[in-house]
Amino acid sequence: CIMAVLFLHLDCVSGPCPFGDVHLYPPGLPRLNRIFIWDVKANTKAGLELKFSAPLRQIQPGEMCPDLVSYNINSCIDKATVNIGTFCRNGSVSRVKLLGGVIMSLHLPWNLTVTTSGFNIANRSSIKRLCIIESILKGESSIMLMSPNYPLGFPEDELMTWQFVVPSNMRASVLFHDYSLSNCERKEERVEYYIPGSVSNPEVFKLSDSQPANIAGSFNMSLQGCDQDAQNPGVLRLLFQVVVQHPQIDENVTHLVDLSKERNMTVTIHFEGWPRRTPLMSEPMCLICKDPRTCDRVLTLASGATYKISFLCKDLSHLRITAEKGISMTKVA
After folding, report:
1. Cis before residue 202, ω within 30 degrees of 0?
2. Can you give the residue ranges of every domain in the chain?
């Protein structure tokens, strides 16, 4: 397969940087698959902002964009390069802010004629972290995002932030699908949320915790790494989903589940087909909540307590309840 690869170097260290809309040069190229690569050098204490004219959708490694148009973003600080991610068109990611320089590539198929890159570059003051990714979620939607370098390791002792712009009349929930942890010598890997109106900002969670749900409006989520064991560093990585829904009519209706008099019993409320089947992204999300902000697709209740649960679900017919009870057998002489 013959491909045209075009490099453009932008020096934003020794002189003024040509910020603004990024155009595709030279025009009139042969009808070949094309890769445009922009290598932007910038001071490591300064920030760069990539703003997209049409929002993007992050994809996993090995996944292809339906129209074969993809953007790849790499952050460059000193000699270290970090893969922020690969993105398709038609998504929610509107801006990516980076610390230091950036290598940006745009892949175009041979049969697509475009004259503009679809993004512009602006300089910003230091963001004091690896990157900030902004997603604008205007209606009911579901998006998948992942940590830089995924499925490889997030850089040691780094910090990054996702900013989610959500209408105040909508509700957002965060679900972790895949994660692993480093072997930390100092500090602790964690996720921090800044939720407007919360009395405990930032709200700190372990990656193993159930993440916040039923969040009203916009919020920020940050991933913090640690100082890793030099001999056995391990891998910090994260793949997660953000689901935005209209408030459910019965979200404030609680249901009492009384297991206080039971022993050796568990009750699991789950989606149809669990645990053999994983719901498709396109399927309506059904969440079970043990309090207004702690919700998940599966909830297991242990005996010896009373629970008040509620549902973020348009159709409860998709849910099932499984009860298991341990029975001890006594041998009679």
Report:
1. yes
2. 1-130, 137-247, 255-325
126 C-beta neighbours (distance < 10 Å), count: 12
DSSP state string for 33-58? EEEEEEEEE--TTSEEEEEEEEEEEE
| First-to-last C-alpha distance (Å) of the chain | 81
* Four-way CATH pick for 1-130: 2.60.120.290, 3.60.130.10, 2.40.110.10, 2.160.20.60: 2.60.120.290
Over residues 109-128, the pLDDT tens digits come to 988 888 889 999 887 778 89
3-state secondary structure of 211: coil
pTM of the predicted structure, to 2 decimals: 0.86
Burial of 306 (0-12, 13-18, 19+ CB in 10 A): exposed
| Preceding peptide of 30 cis, ω within 30° | no
Q: What is the CA radius of gyration of the chain?
A: 24
Q: What is the pLDDT of residues 116-163, one digit of tens each?
A: 899 998 877 788 999 999 999 988 889 999 999 999 999 999 999 999
Question: Kind of pairing, strands 131-136 and 227-228?
Answer: unpaired
Q: Parallel, antiparallel, or unpaired: how do β-strands 287-291 and 294-296 relate?
A: antiparallel
Between the CA atoms of 43, 9, 135 and 109, what dihedral angle is there, to the nearest 10 degrees? -170
Exposure of 103 in the CB half-sphere (CA atoms within 13 A): 13
Q: For residue 217, what is the DSSP state?
A: S
**DSSP symbol at 165:** E
Contact 168, 216 (CB under 8 A): yes
The DSSP output letter for 316 is G
Q: Residue 223, Cβ neighbours under 10 Å: how many?
A: 24
**Which residue is listed with tokens 């000193």?**
78
**How crowded is the C-beta side of 92, counted as CA atoms within 13 Å?**
22
Q: How many residues are there in the chain?
A: 333
CATH architecture of 137-247: Sandwich (2.60)
* Element at 330 (helix H, strand E): none
